[in-house]
Amino acid sequence: MSQVRPLRWKGSNNYREKWLRFAAFEYFRNDLVAGRNPYGASNKEEVEGIKDPDRRAAKLARELIARLSRRSDRCHSSALNVGFPVRST
After folding, report:
1. Which residues, at least 6 apart from 40, have a Cβ–Cβ distance to it below 8 Å?
2. What is the mean pLDDT of each run of 10 residues along the chain (89 residues)?
3. How far is CA 34 from CA 12, 39, 48, 70, 85, in A?
4. What is the pTM of this model?
């Protein structure tokens, strides 16, 4: 029985992650400009310490995408340990 090897081309993942981060940045920046205070996956005190809306939106976007990426990696490795067929892109 041959072993299925996942694809390891990281270019598409990096590209997708950058676009997701940019979209999250735009979303958070629009919320901040509108007067709302989103916190996403970030620490409330750290976010409130940043006064510049662009820097605040960048922090929120980075931490949200990083948290989603870590969760995705954990789910992927858990599925592999249990024996579910998972295909990486």
Report:
1. 24, 28, 60, 61, 63, 64
2. 55 80 94 92 92 94 85 52 51
3. 33, 14, 16, 30, 45
4. 0.64
